[in-house]
Amino acid sequence: MRDLDPVSIRLFLATLEEGSIARAALRENIVPSAVSKRISDLEAELRVPLLDRSVKGVQATPAGEALAHHARALLQGMDRMQREMAGYIDGVRGLIKVMASVTSLSGELPLDIMQFRADRPQIEIDVEERTTPAIYRCVREGLADVGVASEFASQEGLQVFPYRRYALAAVLPAAHALARAKTLAYAQLLDNDLVELSRDSGIIDVFDDAAREARTSRTVRARVSSFETICTLVSKGMGVGVAPLYLKAAKEKTLGVRLVPLADSWAQPRSFIAVRDLETLPVAARAFVAHLRASASATP
């Protein structure tokens, strides 16, 4: 089998996305007959049909679906390679794609990134906030070089390294009956309306399990994208929530809320650095992982 042509793969994906050869040709600025010939050549090379063609358009066959999955990862990798190589023109020697959870970005990770950039200004870092399950999935699929996220999702198929441990706390209005407690169990919050992160956040499953163990239900009045917003809505009286304890000093001073440590067994989770395969990472990404691990080991 010959090496597959990236142009043909790109045209195949365009045809799937557009639902017809004619629309794919228009999008890619090429004549439809050329698109059709490229896809036919792909099918001949792979010896399987990739598209079901009808008067209504085209759909992927099972083999076409499998090819599309690998093709998207391949083209994304090629695009990233081109961006990284283009960076050498301006003296930049590396581009690292990092996905991080809201907890990590609210903690020490931004400082670690800036320290790394100060030491290696020739390396660029793109940071994207995602939920913990999405981060691990994207690293597993090669859509990110490095992920930094909590333990609240499957890490199967990844290499992971301990990063930071943090404590979780109940966020309460200052006048709440529980606000002066030394510690609280999560179950003690469940008589209140709750303000939580979005449903696809990894920690939500933990809350669900805790409520089941307490033989009660949760009443969620608001779902938001950040712990800062949780604290703000609690200060406005919309309910109570959970956030990292490291926000205590800032949020108690600016918003007048109270953060009380949670005593549950899961309330001191660890965050992890995740990669698909450390040995095959680009040199710049390996250096970044080494920097994060060194920073973590230096923290008591």
Q: Give the total of domains.
A: 3
What spatial form do the alpha-carbon principal axes imply?
A: elongated
The name CATH uses for the topology of the largest domain is D-Maltodextrin-Binding Protein, domain 2
Please tally the helical runs, counting DSSP H or I stretches of 4 or more residues: 11
Biggest sheet, spatial arrangement of strands: 4-3-5-12-6
CATH top level of the largest domain is Alpha Beta
Count every beta strand, where a strand is a DSSP E run of 2 or more residues. 12
Structure characterization notes:
The chain is of the alpha/beta class and about 300 residues long. The chain has 11 helices and 12 strands. The protein has helices at about 5-20, 20-30, 30-45, 60-85, 100-105, 110-120, 130-140, 205-215, 225-235, 250-255, 285-295; strands spanning about 50-55, 55-60, 95-100, 125-130, 145-150, 160-165, 170-175, 195, 220-225, 240-245, 255-260, 270-275. The longest helix is centred in the N-terminal third of the chain and has 26 residues, at about 60-85. The model has no long low-confidence stretch (mean pLDDT about 90).
